[in-house]
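Whether sequence alone determines local backbone shape is best considered at the level of individual chains. When preparing material for the folding task, we compiled for one chain both its residues and its backbone structure tokens. No coordinates are needed to read the tokens, only the vocabulary itself. For completeness, the protein is quoted in full, as a sequence line and a line of structure tokens:
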Amino acid sequence: MMLVTRDTFRGKIVQIFRLPIALGLALGGFAAALALAVPGARAQSDDPSYLVGGIGAFDLVQDDDQAIDFRLEYRHGTGLWIIKPWIGVEGTSDGAIYGVGGLLADINLGRRIVITPSIGVGAYSEGDGKDLGHTVEFRSQIELAYRFDNRSRVGVAFSHISNAGIGDENPGTEILNVYYALPLDGLFGR
């Protein structure tokens, strides 16, 4: 029987939240630096909320258990400064499913180009797909998109999912997706 002391409990909590906190700080720092350093880079305060769909290649880099990746996300149009919440579900052709939510920053480079770094945490079930070592998995992603006149977007995203070392094993995976973002204000005539 394992005795759990206050110090081992605190150590485990610090271990679990170290990576998400570091990623959040890095995301905020990256967004701020980009917004300040690149002429014309800015957050658009009147961005709509988006319904986002994506399809791509799961386990692209390691190639242990490749599958087709499907995503559906809701990205809220407002937030704190340029940081906005998002929530989504991801599945693979091997039956894996991942419910996830987090924070993103839309950084506009001129009128048409949008860079969106994001982080998230969620619950993962492998199905017949890749075992990522734990139910709790973290996702970091960078997306590059083209914005049309109606504010819809098409983009490419590269993401990494891993358990940040909280599981006995942490194989992680990388995914390359093509996204389409539908602005919800146009959908409902606002």
